[in-house]
Design a protein that fits this description.
The chain has 437 residues and is α/β, with parallel strands linked by helices. Helix content is 39%, strand content 16%. Strands 3-7-11-15-19-23-27-31-33 form a nine-stranded parallel beta sheet, with no helix packed on it.
Length: 437
């Protein structure tokens, strides 16, 4: 039995008193835990010099200074309850055989932790645990349920190549740095509800066999789901994405829910970033088309168009700026062909503008101002030239004005074109709105 095994077998009180001789109050204040929990930790009395000497003798040492700087070389762990323990040094259990259920709820790890390659054959809990350093679960196997609810990962965390045979929950946890879930196999129900990923998260190549829930999850940085296989219903309801998530080559289940998901569109730094965002939105658009989710398909189409527009703006040259203007006009006038209200209002404003233009027509050669009645009729007839009433109104105006100046003819022709375009955009929006796939 190692000295550390002998020490933790003495119980939580002795272990934490030893840990408090290493952990300062400043270190406790820096932890993102409740004030009550901080007061509880500070209330633990550090060992006096006499007590340290006595403890060293009880664990087979002459002095506690003989303890290694990391907690390693633990041969096996049976059924132990580490809830509320403080681990002030690096903990390495990568070569430790875990033969019984272990409880790490409310445990504080103040340095790096390694469970690499471990087999957890019994239920295990890390609820409300705090990991301050790098956390390594690579290639671990969880054969029963695993609970990481309300857990705080302050350093990078690596779950790559892990297998979760039982259900797993990370609900309401937070990860301040990069979280790596590459090639993870989730066999049962998986919950990431309410998790805050501040440093980005990578699920590349992972498989979700059971239901997966990301309800109200906050992706504050990049979210990478490339090559992920969602084999069951997936819930992204009320999920927040701070940038375009990457779902390239991912297989989304037909019961993928994105209701009330919020997709932030932050300012993109350069052309490449904008093009990358456009590609990400396009992938989701095509996925929604494949699943016959028309409303979500339209949403991702609009996000893709916004990213393309931004890419043109970030690109140097005259043509990219002209393309940006065209995309902008398309967005402002019709919401990229998905708004009925915008082209209707644009038509109303055009009608009013041309009424005023015809009424106060002192700019043509020769000047030919019209009365209000003629101006109203001519503007209506020019904006909607396909109706029978418009044709009659236009003929009446032409009969009253035998000689129409060429510039006035250009104005009516321009209004004809505007009207035709706006009618087309309204029809396009109605088609997109009521399309059934």
């Amino acid at each position: 039995m190692s000295a550390y095994e002998a020490l933790w077998n003495l119980g939580k009180q002795e272990w934490n008193r030893w840990a408090r001789t290493i952990v300062t109050e400043e270190a406790i204040d820096a932890l993102p835990i409740s004030e009550n929990r901080k007061r509880e930790l500070k209330s633990i009395t550090p060992l006096s010099e006499v007590e340290q000497k006595d403890l060293a003798g009880r664990i087979g040492l002459v002095s506690l200074e003989q303890l290694e700087n990391s907690i390693t070389n633990i041969h096996s762990i049976g059924q132990l309850d580490f809830s509320g323990y403080i681990f002030p040094l690096r903990l390495d259990l990568s070569s430790t055989e875990i033969v019984g259920p272990i409880n790490f709820n409310d445990t504080i790890f103040l340095d790096d932790v390694s469970f690499q390659g471990r087999q957890f054959k019994h239920p295990i809990g890390f609820k409300r645990a705090v990991f301050q350093g790098y956390t390594d679960f690579r290639d671990a196997r969880f054969h029963r349920t695993a609970g990481f609810e309300d857990t705080i990962f302050l350093g990078s965390v690596d779950f790559s190549d892990v297998r979760f045979t039982g259900s797993v929950s990370f609900s309401n946890s937070s990860a301040k740095k990069l979280s790596n879930f590459e090639n993870v196999h989730f066999h049962s129900r998986t919950k990431f509800d309410g998790v805050s990923f501040f440093g980005g998260v990578d699920f590349n190549g992972s498989t979700f066999n059971g239901r997966a829930s990301f309800l109200s999850t906050k992706f504050k940085a990049g979210a990478f789901f490339e090559n992920v296989d969602f084999k069951n219903a997936t819930n992204f309801n009320k999920t927040q994405f701070s940038e375009a998530p990457k779902f390239h080559n991912a297989s989304l289940h037909q019961d993928t829910v994105l209701t009330d998901a919020y997709f932030y569109t932050p300012a993109l730094e350069d052309t490449l970033q904008a093009q990358s965002a456009a590609s990400a939105w396009r992938v989701l658009k095509l996925a929604m088309n494949k699943n016959h989710n028309h409303s979500q398909e339209i949403m991702f189409f609009m996000l893709e168009m916004d990213a393309k527009r931004e890419a043109f703006w970030k690109t140097k040259g005259v043509m990219p700026k002209l393309n940006w203007f065209g995309y902008s006009l398309y967005k402002w006038v019709s919401g990229y062909g998905n708004s009925v209200t915008k082209p209707f209002l644009a038509g109303l404003l055009s009608y009013i503008a041309f009424v005023l233009l015809y009424r106060f027509n002192y700019w043509s050669s020769p000047p030919s101002p019209m009365c209000w009645n003629e101006s109203l009729k001519l503007s209506f007839a020019s904006l909607l030239p396909f109706t029978s009433s418009s044709k009659i109104a236009l003929m009446n105006v032409l009969d009253a004005n035998k000689e129409i100046p060429w510039d006035l003819q250009m104005a009516t022709s321009s209004e004809n074109i505007i009207g035709a375009v706006l009618i087309f955009l309204i029809g396009l929006a109605l088609r997109n709105k009521f399309t059934i796939k």
